[in-house]
Design a protein that fits this description.
4 helices; mainly alpha; 112 residues; elongated
C-alpha cells in the first residue's frame, strides 16, 4: 500500500507541476512512458521466471527505474508480486527512486 501511495502522490505532484507550467510536457510524458515500459518489463520478467525462460537482468530493471520508470516498477512489484522479497534489489530500487526525485527537483531548481 505504501508503494502505491508514493506513486499516486508523485504522479499527482507531477501533474500539478505540469498544469502550473513548472515542468515541460516531455517530462510528464517521459515519466509516464518509462513507467509503462518498466511495468511491462517486470511483467515479462515474471512470466519468464514462471516459465523458466531467459530473464531480464536486475540491472536492466534498475536502470529503467533510475531513468524515470520507478512508478511503473513499484506498481509492477505489487501487481505481479515480483521482486518483493529480494532485500538488496529493493534497497537499490529505493535508492534509484531517491536519486531520480532529487535529480528532478534539482533540475527544477536550476530552471531546466
Amino acid at each position: 500500500m505504501f508503494s502505491k501511495s508514493v506513486v499516486v502522490l508523485f504522479l499527482i505532484a507531477l501533474g500539478l507541476l505540469f498544469m502550473m507550467q513548472e515542468i515541460a510536457l516531455w517530462v510528464l510524458v517521459s515519466y509516464l512512458s518509462l513507467s509503462l515500459l518498466t511495468f511491462v518489463l517486470y511483467g515479462i520478467d515474471k512470466r519468464n521466471a514462471i516459465k523458466e525462460r531467459r530473464r531480464i537482468s536486475e540491472k536492466t530493471l534498475q536502470v529503467f527505474a533510475l531513468l524515470g520508470g520507478w512508478p511503473g516498477a513499484l506498481l509492477a512489484q505489487q501487481a505481479f508480486r515480483h521482486k518483493t522479497q529480494k532485500r538488496p534489489f529493493i534497497f537499490v530500487l529505493w535508492f534509484a527512486i531517491l536519486i531520480n526525485v532529487i535529480a528532478l527537483g534539482y533540475s527544477q531548481y536550476l530552471g531546466f
